[in-house]
Specification:
90 residues, mainly alpha, YggX-like, two-stranded antiparallel sheet, iron
Length: 90
């Protein structure tokens, strides 16, 4: 049976992640408060950010920047600003 969490991103009960995907306390917070759907949304944004800003995941500064963007997106309701990207009109 699927695990359900109250997703802070969606502001509703939703299917939780199957396991902790991110290390440490932040990883626990994501596992306990972020749904699969919200994590999938973040993954799309993360890929665009890495490509747009040519982030190097071996560089501590780039990882720190990405983590800050992730927290803002998942927990603070802030959208990720990607230069040159216009979201499709609804």
């Amino acid at each position: 049976m699927a695990r359900t969490v109250y997703c802070e991103y969606l502001n509703k009960e939703a299917e939780g992640l199957d396991f902790q995907l991110y290390p440490g306390e932040l990883g626990e917070r994501i596992y306990n408060h972020i749904s699969k759907q919200a994590w999938a949304e973040w993954q799309k944004k993360q890929t665009m950010l890495i490509n747009e800003k040519r982030l190097n995941m071996m560089a501590a500064d780039d990882r720190q920047f990405l983590e800050e963007q992730m927290v803002a997106f998942l927990f603070e309701g802030k959208d990720v600003k990607i230069e040159g990207y216009t979201p499709p009109a609804p």
